[in-house]
Structures are given as C-alpha cells and as structure tokens.
C-alpha cells in the first residue's frame, strides 16, 4: 500500500464612562456571539459500511429467480487482463506553467487522489516544511524508499527523479557553511524519507542518494513552499487535530463511480461489482499530459465502465490573471453494454472530499442556510454542501447536519444546476454538462459523509462531507448497437472563490445560474464589499494589505473626525461638569425627578449632549463587522503578509498573528481551539497590544472616581477589557491592526484637546441654577472669621 505524504501536526475615540461601558459590553457580546457560538453535541455514529456495499434502493431482481447473466452471454464476455496499480499525473504544479493544478489520478478505484493548486498565491498555511513533491513512497526491497510517482512541475521532477528510483540516503543542505554530514540521514524505509522532509524548509536544497536500475543515483532538489491541496486523503486533515485517530483513519478518493442498479442482476452481483470499481486497478487506455482514459470491465454484469479525466491549459497571456476560467477539470462517465440484450442501468458519482480545513482552530464560516430568517446563524462547518437546482435558490447544508443524517435526498425529477463542497476560501463544484439546462440527467442528489464520522461533538465543524449524484436509469441497447452506451459529462470547478472567477462558471452557460452565489458575506455584505474595494485599491498602490488596512483606518477615522472630535470634547466637558453633577446628586439624594431636571438644565447650559458619544459606536460597528467578514471571505486577503511570508508572524492577515509556537506545552484540546480557553497552538501578540491600548485609553482619559458607584463602574470596565482579551485572542491579525491604528488615532486626537478645567467661577450661579449647595455651618464660621481678620487689617 502506498504511503501518502505525511503532514506535520500544527505546531504546535473617548466617551463618558456609562457610554464607554455600553460600547465595551456591546462589542464583547457581539464578538462572543460571532466567534464562540456553541454547537449542539453530535451523537457518535458507527463506522460506515464499505462504500462498495452502499447500494440504495433500486429495481433489483430476486437472486434465485434469475441468474446473473443470460446463458448465451456467459461464455462470450471476457475479462481484461489484470491491470497494474499506478498513479497518473495530469497538469502540472509549476507556478509558471500552463496549468492551474496537478491532478493525481489513482487507477485503483479510477478516481482522483489529490488536487494541488500551482499558483504561488495559494499555498498550504499549516505545513511550513519544504516541498519535494508527492512521491507515493513504499518500502523498497533490501531497504530504502521506492518512488512510485513524480508529478510534473515538482522540485522532484525538476531534479530528475523518476518512478522506480530507490532513495537510500538524504542530506538537507541548509547553508554552504554547514557540514553535510551533520544533516544527512540514512533512508531505511519510506517513513525515514518522510521524516527527513518534515524537517526540511523551503528554499533549502536536499541531496538524494540511491540507485536507479542498479546504477548509482545522486540528485539535488531545491525545496519550495507546500502547494495547497484542494483535495487530498482525509487522513492528512484528521492528523492536524487528532494525530492518534489519523493513524487508522480510512480515506477514500474523490469522484469514484459505483452502480446503483442493473436490471437482470441480483444485489450481491452489484455489490461485488462496486467492490471491483472501488478497490481494483482500472485499465489505462489512453493518456497524455492533460487527459487519461480508464476502463473497468464487469463481465458478470455484462458492463464496462469508462472514465475520462481532462485538465485544461491557461493561455500564456492569462497566466497571471487568477480570474481566468481555467480552474476546472472535466470528467466523463460512460457505461457500455456488453450483452446481446438491452439493460437498464443507473450509477452514482461521488463528488469531492478531503477539502482543506486550514485554520480549523480559529476559523468561523457562515452560510446561507435554508433560506429562513435565522438560516445563516447555524453552526456551519469548514466544509459544507451547496446545491442548486434550475430556477431555484442556492441551498447550503452544514457539515454537522450532514453528519447527523438530517439532510434528505433532493431532486426527484428537478434539473440540477450544480452541487459540490464549499470551504472557507475555496470550492469544488460539479456542474453537469447537458444539451439543455432543463434536461434531467440526475435522479437524486444526496449530501453524505465521505469518510468515517469524527466521534466528538466539538469536531462537528470538521466533518468530511461530499455530494452524491445519482443518474436517471438509462436503457442501454444490445452490444454493438448505436444505443449500447451512454455518456454523461461533468465540469468540476476546483479553485479559489474569487468573485470574477465564480461569475465565469455557469450551468448551461446561463448567466442566471453562475457559481457567484457560493460567495457569501452574511448580513454585513453591504459593508464588507465597499471596504474590500478600498483595500484592493490601496493594496494596488502600496503592495501590502497590512498598510492598506492602516490606510483604510485613516480614511474611516478621518471621515469621522468632526464627530469623534466633538465626542472627545464632550468627554472633556463631562469631566469639567463632574463636580457639579456630584453636587446635584448629593443635594437631591431622595428626589430622582428633581435630580434629572437639574442635570438636564446643567447640560443645556453648557451645550452638552450625553447621547452624542454613542454615534461613533454605531458608525464603527458596521465597519468592524464588514472588515471581519471581508477577512473571513475574501481569498485575496488569505496568505497576505504584514511583513513577509518567509516568517510565521503575521504571515496571513486573515489569521491570528501566530507570534510564538507553544503547541508542545499545551494539551491537544487547547491546540485545537476548543472552547473559550482553546487558544490554539500559537501565542498571539497583537490581541494583547490591542487590549493594552484600550486599557491605556481608559487610564489616560477617564476621570478619577469620586464615588463608589463610579469606582465600581471603572473596575467592571477593567474586567470587561480582560474578557475582551479572551474574545480577541484568535481574531485575524488584520482586524487587530485596524483596532491598533484606530486606538492610536484616538489617543492622538484626544491629546490635541486641552485638559479639562473647572467651570468658570468654580460653581454655577444661583441666578441660573437651582442646584447651588449652601455652605455648611463649619464653612460659614470660617468665612466669618476670615472676614473679621480682613476688616481688622484695613483699619490698621
């Protein structure tokens, strides 16, 4: 059995105090709701049966009543010679090449094992090890690692590595001054080479020593960043959050075919045929750099299944244009009747699985839901199922709902526009290619788990879901007749969720049925889209999205300057009036109505509006939410670094800053980001800087408490700031940059104002205010004594 490439586990402005309290409370509750929503526990599901036995209801005949094959066909249909298991490469992973992706097709099962995107704009964000290429390594006889696959455009291919080479020694050359002997490792088996590659880093070179057909072999390859696996064996995703479970986790390929029903054959024969389709090597008929034809003959059923996979090239002039519609590959499924009598056949095509779960410890994804008012508040996962039928809206099903078996089969005679799996920044969507959009070629669409259900309720967002397309039963004419075969064609979009790119893919070339609706910003899309336009514009000017966010902050705070400055003035005025407010409160302890009237008169006299401080909050809240949604949806902000992607810190503005890896010292549940104290595998610096600036503003500009109530309010606000630190710990670093820049602006803005001074005269005139406090008897006696002394001095 091939040993798949192992992935390492994740390494681990100022306002009055009452309004400020309301601001902090509202923001904290909002962040808490959005980023720490609770998910209902999912029941543990037993391991699903073998995919080969997943035969749904269909027109099957009794096994005893009818034989599998008519007697006149039994001796005429011959089986093919056994095929050799192999991997077939389509396309290339060369960033400068003509292909957007590299497809690895496994003829065992006749399906896709892996899809790697070639663009440098879309790299693996979890795996920072050096990339040599997927090699499908196995243990070589006599020791060493046997290479069974070399993908075009990989560093291995560029170095000249070939299928059949045996690697017995590897040397990582980190620098010219380092001793090769200190980095070399003997390769006794495939796992040794994988462990060596896990320690390597991009831009390092690795020397591979071994033999080729009995001759000595020595090659040197320069490693680079890991490309993004848009589809891969699910065990590699499970290893990120559950290393122990991954060791025995069974993966399945994408886009395999199984039979639904075959007239004239019993259920046991169909089950055995499905086992052969999934577990036996298919015969490779034709192949080139961008297409392959696979064939599996089923003599007991008198059928032959043929599949073709084709990738497309990108024109040279469009290779730097990510929005060019070449992020797809085509699949055709052909059924051929080998019998001398007609047969009615239906099949199922299972869709993509093993989509990325990058950022699983912090990411939150929303969806459209079922169209109800609260549809997008559900617990959507990192990989959800999307389905759209002709002249209907797009429907999205959360991974947890699919895992619980709560999604009913869909279709039943309605023409399908498209269906697939949607992740946070990428999607893989199957679009049936039909002569007419309204043709019905799919009898039913189901949302299912592709692999074993993850057992814990806190893993519900990480379930591996897929779609199953069941064909309409088709009558195949007798062998050699014109109607002896039927072919269904599918186009599979597999790429980033760029708006222009999604708009270019449509079912039946109908502009009303494009993939654009897969992109969803939520309720604050009206704020996110203009902000994205500004961010992309600023990035086009300065070439850095971190600086673009700062420029956006300057624009927002600059536009708000008259309002925020007036708010700051109100804060200063509030501090000036605080002694008078305290006197009013002392005088009217028992009469709240008179106290309120006196305060209102005081505010009117000094032109102070206590409600004005809330206005900046209501202006900035949509901006905050819009930026948060933009970072969570826009794929161009994914992998956008503040400094450089050569270092981990702030290498992705759509993720936490990941200042320090502390995963080795934390339990697995904390590294997985489970619960409010699930901080993830990294210590994040920017959230602490953000909260520290909030506390600094509070300390610098909030007046000293003059009573117990005010002291208690300020103490509560300090605790609320600490609570916000918990809520902010896993927010995107781009959002922290916005808050840091906004806080620094607010501090500078406040420093421009004069310090608060008491009202002129030290008290409010009794002619204009009824709140003058009479002097105490002790104070009156002191005043009389002072007057007598002054009078005596004048006489002298």
From TrEMBL:
UniProt topology in membrane: Multi-pass membrane protein
DNA damage listed as a keyword: no
Gene Ontology cellular component annotations, sorted alphabetically: plasma membrane
Membrane spanning residue stretches: 21-39, 545-564, 611-631, 674-696, 717-741
Family affiliation: Belongs to the OXA1/ALB3/YidC family. Type 1 subfamily.
Disordered: annotated segments: 756-796
Residue ranges, compositional bias (Low complexity): 765-784
Cellular compartment(s): Cell inner membrane; Cell membrane
Annotated InterPro entries: Membr_insert_YidC (IPR019998), Membr_insert_YidC_N (IPR028053), PDZ_6 (IPR041489), PDZ_sf (IPR036034), YidC/ALB3/OXA1/COX18 (IPR001708), YidC/Oxa/ALB_C (IPR028055), YidC_ALB_C (IPR047196), YidC_periplasmic_sf (IPR038221)
Biased composition (Basic residues): 785-796
Limits of the PDZ domain: 147-169
GO molecular function: membrane insertase activity
Any one Gene Ontology BP term: protein insertion into membrane
Subunit description: Interacts with the Sec translocase complex via SecD. Specifically interacts with transmembrane segments of nascent integral membrane proteins during membrane integration.
Ranges in coiled-coil conformation: none
Domain Membrane insertase YidC N-terminal residues, every copy: 389-534
Official protein name in the record: Membrane protein insertase YidC
Function per UniProt: Required for the insertion and/or proper folding and/or complex formation of integral membrane proteins into the membrane. Involved in integration of membrane proteins that insert both dependently and independently of the Sec translocase complex, as well as at least some lipoproteins. Aids folding of multispanning membrane proteins.
Keyword Phosphoprotein: no
Alphabetic keyword roster: Cell membrane, Chaperone, Membrane, Protein transport, Transmembrane, Transmembrane helix, Transport
Sequence ranges assigned to domain Membrane insertase YidC/Oxa/ALB C-terminal in this UniProt record: 545-751
